[in-house]
């Protein structure tokens, strides 16, 4: 397992998901709720990819310190966790926009 490639995969997918979350919020603000939901769905797919890679790293490490912890690894984890939070909040905000538009 090439750790650099794996870590970049987390960062890229988390970054794409984060961008899609903010695109969803912008669409919801304009009343484009179907587009907002599509963006959230795409963001979830990206998050699932990033989470799968994270799970593979955890499994490879087995809690035994087999995978060296680097600053870029911490950076990737930070991106993933903040994007998961952004996605959860964006879902709630899109739902609020939908409710206000009813």
* End-to-end separation: 50 Å
Low-confidence segments, given as residue ranges, are: none
Order of helices and strands: HHH
Helix/strand/pairing category = mainly alpha
Look at the structure and give the CATH class: Mainly Alpha
Helix count equals 3
CATH topology: Methane Monooxygenase Hydroxylase, Chain G, domain 1
Overall tally of structural domains = 1
Helix content: over 70%
What value does the Rg take, in angstroms? 16 Å
Question: Which band does the percent of strand residues land in?
Answer: under 5%
Let me know the number of strands: 0
Largest sheet entry: none
Would you tell me the overall average pLDDT? Answer: 93
Can you tell me the CATH architecture?
Answer: Up-down Bundle
Gross geometry: elongated
State the fourth-level CATH superfamily: Phosphotransferase system, lactose/cellobiose-type IIA subunit
Describe the structure.
The chain is elongated. The protein has 102 residues and is an all-alpha fold. It has 3 helices and no strands. Helix 1 (3-29) runs antiparallel to helix 2 (33-61) and helix 2 runs antiparallel to helix 3 (71-101). It has a single domain (3-101), classed as Methane Monooxygenase Hydroxylase, Chain G, domain 1.
